[in-house]
Structure to design on (250 residues):
């Protein structure tokens, strides 16, 4: 296996891939005092990867080591976001929000373990290219419809619509309490409750359970981020030292 998939999330709009063994002993203190400056320093040294992020949420990543991504995924890669001349992979790899990065301990990971996924990428020194995928919604819908079947996809679609409608409805009836007569307001509350119950029942249906599996498959095949790591030759790490030895003395 030469590719590795993981997922994580952030509440601070910054996703990173990091290796605790790469970080200095005082990393936890520095992360508390000035996480952005510390992360920028580690990024420049190739000790972490820092991903451009549109905002909070859950994200997925696939790392290809000495392997090209499949053609269907390559077609959705945006222009190269960032090139890393050196990426130092050492120990376990973690993918999550900047707020979850640590050297020795981070209580947030114990509280929210799903927000920082773990990958096992072989140790080494690599060149790295980081990409963000740009997948049209129409492609996602078509893929899921083909995977699930049109009828079951429609169940998923209605469940999502009812969930959104019930959320909007709750906010609406709270404000409407001050403006509507009581019997109309109660009717509105009943409609919102009916919408919510319908969404819950659909979420428990076999179609929606299969949809969760299909969405997970789609996320693994078409993640938000793609990282290409190319192994550097063994002598790469020794090149700086060799150059120093070759320099004239005096």
């Amino acid at each position: 296996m030469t590719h590795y998939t993981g997922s994580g999330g952030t509440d601070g709009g910054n996703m990173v891939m990091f290796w605790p063994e790469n970080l200095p002993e005082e990393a936890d203190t520095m992360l508390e005092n000035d996480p952005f400056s510390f992360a920028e320093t580690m990024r420049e040294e190739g000790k972490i990867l820092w991903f451009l992020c549109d905002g909070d949420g859950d994200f997925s990543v696939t790392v290809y080591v000495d392997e090209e991504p499949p053609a269907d995924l390559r077609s959705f890669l945006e222009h190269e976001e960032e090139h890393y001349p050196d990426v130092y992979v050492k120990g376990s790899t973690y993918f999550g929000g900047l707020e979850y990065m640590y050297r020795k301990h981070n209580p947030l990971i114990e509280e929210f373990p799903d927000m920082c996924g773990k990958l096992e990428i072989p140790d080494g020194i690599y060149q790295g290219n980081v990409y963000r995928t740009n997948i049209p919604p129409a492609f996602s819908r078509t893929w899921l419809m083909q995977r699930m079947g049109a009828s079951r996809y429609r169940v998923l679609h209605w469940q999502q619509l009812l969930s959104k409608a019930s959320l909007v409805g709750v906010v609406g009836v709270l404000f409407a309490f001050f403006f509507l007569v009581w019997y109309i307001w109660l009717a509105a509350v009943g409609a919102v409750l009916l919408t919510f119950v319908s969404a819950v029942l659909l979420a428990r249906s076999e179609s929606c359970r299969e949809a969760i599996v299909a969405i997970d498959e789609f996320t693994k095949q078409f993640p938000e981020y793609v990282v290409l790591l190319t192994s550097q030759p063994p002598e790469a790490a020794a090149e700086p030292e060799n150059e120093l030895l070759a320099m004239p003395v005096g």
